[in-house]
Structure formats: C-alpha cells, structure tokens
Automatic annotation (TrEMBL):
Pfam families: Methyltr_RsmB-F, NusB. Belongs to the class I-like SAM-binding methyltransferase superfamily. RsmB/NOP family. Keywords: Methyltransferase, RNA-binding, S-adenosyl-L-methionine, Transferase. The active site is at C417 (nucleophile). It comes from the Bacteria. Transmembrane segments: none annotated. This is Transcription antitermination factor NusB. It comes from Nocardioides imazamoxiresistens. S-adenosyl-L-methionine binds at C291, A292, G293, P294, G295, G296, K297, E316, D347, D364. InterPro entries: MeTrfase_RsmB-F_NOP2_cat (IPR049560), MeTrfase_RsmB-F_NOP2_dom (IPR001678), NusB-like_sf (IPR035926), NusB_RsmB_TIM44 (IPR006027), RCMT (IPR023267), RsmB/NOL1/NOP2-like_CS (IPR018314), SAM-dependent_MTases_sf (IPR029063). Residues 1-24 are annotated as: Disordered.
Length: 485
C-alpha cells in the first residue's frame, strides 16, 4: 500500500489527467525546431545555422536531408501556415506562445507539404512541444494539428486566402507565402522588365522551391570536368564554371575543402563573368571587388584575373565579413591565392585608392535580397519597405565611389541580388544623371549564352540584364555595365 497522502504510481492527479508518458523526440525534428528558434530569437540565417545544428544532433544522410527540408520548407511557407493555423485556433495568432507557434508551423509543413503520415506528423510535434515547452501546450498542439490535417494545402488556401478576383495580391501573398508588399514589388519588377504579368505566380512559386546545390570550379585551380568527375554532378547550362550537385555534403569534396571550388549560385557566377568578359580597351591589370563579403564572387574573379596576369583587390566594410573574404581567397596554408593583391576592410563609399586606379570594378551592392528568397527564405519576413529607403542612398554612394576609382575607359559592373527597380535601374539612372564622365553599355555581349534576360532599360535606352528564378533557375541577379569616359 502506498504511504498515506502519496499518489500511487501512474495514478491520476487529483482534478486532472495522468501525466503523458515521456517519449524521446526525433533528433531531425529537434534540429529543425532549433533552426526556427535561432532564426526567430537570434536573427540567424537558416542556411548558416543548419550545419552546426545538424552536427549538434548527430544528423547525416537522409535524416539531415529531412531536417533541412523541414526547417527551410517551414520558413518558406510560414505565411501560408500562419493563415491556416489562425483558422484553427480560438485566439489571435499573436496570443499563441512563440515556441508553440514554431512547432505548429513545423507540424503544418509535415501535414500539408511533406509525405509524412498524419499520425506521425501530429504525434512527433506533440512530443516536441511536451519536451521543449510543457505538457499543457502539448494538448493544445494536438487539437490544432488535428484540425489542420482535415484539409489538404490547396483546400486550405481556398478557405483562408482573400478572393483572387477581388484581391489578387492578397491571394498571392497567402497562396505563395510572401508578404503583401513583396508580392507588389516583384509584380512591379516584372512589369518594368517588360515581362508578362502572368509570370508572377511562377516567380513566387520558384521562390518556394529548394535551390539546387551549385559548385563553381575556380579556373586554374580545378577544371570543371574534374569537378564533375569527382562529384558525379552535371555541368550548369549558363556558367562555364558551374556544376550542379546530385546531393550530399559539398564540403566533403576535396576541391571544395582546399578552396579550389566553392558553393556558389549560378547567378552569382554570371555576375563575375559579366565583369571579366566585358570587352575592355587598354590596360587590364588591376581589378577591384568593392563589396566583397562573403567572398564567393571575389574568389572567382581572382581565379579569372590570375589567368590573365591581372590582380584583384578585395574590399569589405565589416571586419567579420573580411575574415570570410580572406578565407575564401586563401590557400589551406593561409597564403593568398594567385591573382589576389590585397584583402582590406574599408568604407566602400570612401575607398582608400587613388582615383583612376582600377581597370575593372565590381559593385555587388548591399540590397534587399528579394532575388535570393529561395536560399534565404526567412529574409521575406524580415525585410520591410523601409529597408529600401535606407539602402538606396548607400547603393548610389557605392556606385559613385566605384566609378571614381576606375580609370578612363575602365568598366564597372553594378549588381544586386534583387530585381526591384528602386535598387537597380533607378540607382544607376540617378548616378548617371549626376555625372558627365560615364556611359552605360549593354552587358549582354559579355554573357551571350544567357537567354531571355533583358532587364529594364536605363533612362537613355541602354539595356540591362536581369536573371529570374522561374526562368533561369538562378537568384534574381541584376547587372548594369558602365564605362568611365
């Protein structure tokens, strides 16, 4: 008999239910949950937080792939899932504890977008909440997810999105999980580039597709054919240096481990090629990457420069990012790779070099990043229209400074990972309007292999180049080419 005043083991608590049995939580789901927390609490980027958390939870192979898709997919579709969850709870979404809401989003993604049986999606999410939040919210989680599982994703969108005829922007925002202002900005970008308005759905859908892992073979350090043979990958169609990986950890590739290759979106490779391949008269000895962090474009430019006997200077405004640039431009023993003259930390709007120093200059300007939502899905929830107002003056000053340090006859590429006109053609037009020593050139001649990439024309009618995720399967990189006169 139990002692007086003590409950028998497993007996119901007075006035309540017996405690639920403790079950271990699946490590892959724990890792995904920790990624969402890092993004929400620490302002982390998912693609940077994931590798450390995968290692922390001991995940490799299929388990690592499951955790990656669960975390990244949940972040991409967060707007849609929030609308669904809001329809399934008895309180405003703002009143749901943030830790519980993270778990509900993960459960919704499993129920609506992954091939996870309903019972497994619900029970594992309940276990996760019980372990990380508490027993009380676990019952709430169970009830909400059972309601979520009553309909498929398409049915939920029809139920919770605004009417497509009366509010097409609102419908697209919910259906494709983008903030309303981002939908409007991307629609405007398509229109300014002369593209069909019907492409908007395809563009938004492409933002929600996991991007392929793409490597760049840095010329003179590893050949693309060698990289294809080592990885079992396939050559990219647009960049002569790119390789699409079939899967696996790119860091396990020897060429990547020793810096001869790197992970780099094909669109970013094309930006570097737009600068290196543009025809140039006269001296071609000194190149500059003015906004070099984190170093991917600089590493490709350095390899291309070395092949011509030119030298690259790399500048980055923030010291912690300069560390990344230096790492990308160094051999395993710490020495700078061939083709690199210097790696410095400095204000790009007031560069340390004398006017007319460089023959080719890249301005990969800080921007909203709305062209890279495939790879940084959380960015869509962080950015605001006010960010554009803050970024545009900086972009103009950077382009002006780049032109100042370029010699007469030299070339400047202005690039952004955004198609939004306010930070692309409108920046270039504003700078051109204030100078009489610069002319615009069409960048297409440097990239003749890239089809269907006409960007918005500048005020003087000169063409620009615009890549699109739904057309080129790259980030939405913008390129304008300028020449000092």
């Amino acid at each position: 008999m139990p002692e007086p005043g003590r409950r028998r083991p497993n007996a119901p608590r007075r006035g309540g239910r017996p405690p639920a049995p403790r079950r271990s939580v699946d490590p892959a789901r724990l890792a995904a949950y920790d990624v969402l927390r890092a993004v929400r609490v620490d302002g982390a980027y998912a693609n940077l937080a994931l590798p450390d958390l995968l290692r922390k939870h001991g995940l490799t192979g299929r388990d690592a792939g499951f955790a990656t898709e669960l975390a990244s997919g949940t972040l991409r579709r967060q707007g849609t899932y929030d609308a669904v969850v809001a329809a399934c709870v008895d309180r405003p979404l703002a009143k749901v504890e943030a830790k519980v809401l993270d778990a509900l989003r993960l459960g919704a993604h499993q129920l609506l977008a992954m091939r996870v049986p309903d019972h497994a999606a619900i029970s594992t999410t309940v276990d996760l909440v019980r372990a990380r939040v508490g027993q009380g919210p676990a019952g709430f989680t169970n009830a909400v997810l059972r309601r979520v599982g009553e309909h498929d994703l398409a049915s939920w969108v029809r139920r919770v999105a605004p009417d497509v005829a009366g509010d097409p922007v609102g419908f697209a925002a919910v259906a494709h999980s983008h903030p309303r202002w981002v939908v409007s900005a991307l629609a405007h970008a398509l229109a300014r580039a002369g593209r069909d308005a019907g492409e908007l759905d395809a563009l938004l859908a492409a933002d929600n597709e996991p991007p392929a892992v793409t490597l760049v073979a840095r010329p003179g350090r590893v050949g693309r054919d060698e990289l294809v043979a080592a990885t079992g990958g396939t050559p990219t169609q647009l960049s002569p240096h790119g390789v699409l990986l079939p899967g696996g950890d790119p860091g396990a590739t020897d060429a990547v481990a020793r810096g001869a290759a790197g992970v780099q979106d094909e669109g970013s490779q094309l930006v570097a090629l737009a600068l290196s391949e543009a025809p140039l008269d006269g001296r071609d000895e000194r190149w500059l990457d003015l906004c070099a962090g984190p170093g991917g474009k600089a590493a490709l430019l350095a390899a291309l420069a070395a092949g011509r006997g030119a030298r690259l200077s790399a500048n980055e405004a923030q010291e912690h990012r300069t560390v990344l640039v230096r790492r990308a431009l160094s051999e395993p023993d710490g020495a700078l790779v061939a083709g690199v003259d210097e790696v410095v930390t400095g204000d790009g709007t007031a560069p340390r070099w004398e006017p007319g120093t460089f023959d080719r200059v890249l301005v990969d300007a800080p921007c909203s990043g709305l062209g890279a939502l495939r790879r940084r899905p959380e960015s869509r929830w962080r950015r605001t229209p006010g960010d554009l107002r803050d970024l545009v003056p900086l972009q103009r000053r950077l382009l002006d400074a780049a032109l100042d340090v370029t010699r007469p006859g030299g070339l400047v590429v202005y690039a952004t990972c955004s198609p939004v006109p306010a930070e692309t053609v409108e920046v270039v037009d504003a700078v051109l309007a204030g100078r009489d020593d610069v002319r615009a050139l069409a960048p297409g001649a440097a990239l003749p292999q890239v089809p269907d990439a006409a960007g918005p024309a500048l005020a003087d009618g000169t063409a620009t180049l615009q890549l699109w995720p739904h057309v080129h399967r790259t980030d939405a990189m913008f390129v304008a080419l300028l020449q000092r006169t």
